[in-house]
Design goal:
alpha+beta
Length: 76
């Protein structure tokens, strides 16, 4: 789960992002780095459909790092 606050009202918002996702074909647990460059499961070659949910999953580590840096550089 990613937490971030808006600057207008100091309210907290939540983004739910999974840490890992199982492959629908072989069941292997995949992390964002597994699907970052290739849209296929590295274990069974299942092709994932590129959609918003998959993009959110792949980008979640980058967003988490960015939010952590913002909180450290610009504390409330």
């Amino acid at each position: 789960m990613i937490y971030y606050s808006t600057m207008e009202n100091n309210e907290y918002n939540y983004i739910s992002v999974k840490e890992e996702v199982p492959c629908p074909k072989c069941g292997e647990k995949l992390q964002p780095v597994d699907l970052e460059s290739f849209p296929r499961c590295p274990y069974c070659d299942f092709e994932f459909v590129r959609d918003n949910a998959l993009e959110d999953f792949v980008l979640s580590p980058i967003i988490k790092r960015w939010l952590r840096n913002i909180q450290q550089n610009f504390p409330n």
